[in-house]
Task: inverse folding
């Protein structure tokens, strides 16, 4: 079968589209024939050796896939050949087929496309876990979302509204701000004078929950705009700059800085992860969340697509298709 292969930790242009051994359905694993493969920011970090996890090379990147079950292992109890599923793969997703534990799959309702399912797994899964378990967002609170036109940002905007928050979206261009408003944000602003803008919008109260996948200078501005008992969520560093925190701010402003590592959450708290996915699917069927799919591209173009994601050139979710 064909796959995207990282032969060593290296720049994105050294990824290879080539032949890779077909996976087998052993034990509790199922083999999924991919219809859609989600592209995520961590994928680009992984292949360059810049992510927390460093698998032995060569390897196939990719953490989410949706398609049909092509084979089942002897210990699989809830799935049969032909079932439509989405799965968290950790690695191995950028391929025509992938083997994954049954526990990491979910059956798809007929009304959900494979592309939308991919978006729900990682992008929406991360944002949901961040706002629900880590941020404990409550109805009526103010949520500020940085990078609000990216895949996790749009997810945070929609999930924040589903949880009853007032959502302030922050995005770099008027077009991206428009996308955030269309996704449900109450207001969208740029990064210029961010601290002062947030103070004005909140009437001086500050932000209850800050969602930051960007890092850099934006993190510091958001930290200075946090309100009493606020929760500033560290999602990632799409700006390429890992910020330093002036911890005296947390003391005098009385807010918490909370790390969000969704990948470990899915492993350490599998029941909570499963419950989260059921809630997300329910919201999807009710129309409360709806992924924005910017485009679908051939699997062979994975390196170029990843470059767009790492360069913050994408709005919404990008999908690969075998």
Result:
């Amino acid at each position: 079968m064909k796959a995207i292969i990282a032969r060593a930790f290296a720049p994105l242009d050294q990824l290879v589209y080539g032949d890779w051994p077909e996976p087998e359905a052993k034990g509790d694993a199922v083999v999924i024939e991919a219809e859609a493969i989600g592209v995520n920011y961590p994928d680009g970090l992984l292949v360059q050796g810049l992510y927390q996890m460093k698998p032995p090379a060569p390897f196939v990147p990719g953490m989410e896939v949706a398609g049909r079950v092509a084979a089942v292992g002897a210990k699989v109890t809830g799935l049969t050949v032909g079932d439509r599923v989405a799965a968290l793969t950790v690695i191995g997703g950028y391929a025509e087929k992938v083997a994954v534990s049954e526990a990491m799959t979910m059956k798809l309702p007929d009304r959900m496309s494979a592309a939308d399912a991919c978006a729900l797994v990682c992008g929406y899964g991360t944002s949901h876990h961040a706002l629900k378990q880590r941020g404990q967002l409550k109805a009526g609170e103010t949520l500020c979302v940085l990078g609000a036109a990216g895949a996790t940002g749009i997810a945070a905007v929609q999930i924040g509204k589903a949880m009853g928050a007032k959502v302030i979206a922050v995005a770099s261009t008027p077009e991206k701000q428009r996308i955030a408003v269309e996704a449900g944000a109450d207001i969208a602003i740029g990064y210029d004078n961010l601290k002062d803008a947030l103070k004005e919008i909140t009437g001086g109260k500050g932000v209850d929950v800050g969602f930051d996948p960007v890092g850099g200078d934006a993190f510091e501005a958001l930290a200075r705009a946090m309100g009493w008992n606020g929760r500033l969520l560290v999602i990632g560093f799409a700006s390429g700059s890992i910020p330093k925190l002036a911890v005296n701010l947390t003391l005098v402003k009385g807010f918490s800085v909370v790390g969000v590592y969704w990948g470990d959450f899915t492993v350490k708290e599998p029941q909570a992860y499963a419950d989260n996915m059921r809630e997300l699917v329910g919201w999807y069927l009710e129309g409360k969340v709806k992924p924005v799919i910017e485009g679908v591209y051939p699997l062979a173009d994975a390196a170029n697509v990843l470059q767009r994601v790492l360069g913050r050139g994408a709005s919404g979710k990008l999908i690969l298709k075998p």
Observations:
- The longest strand covers residues 29-38.
- The chain has a mean pLDDT of 95.
- Residues 51 and 277 are 24 Å apart (CA to CA).
- The chain has two domains: 2-108+292-321, 123-263.
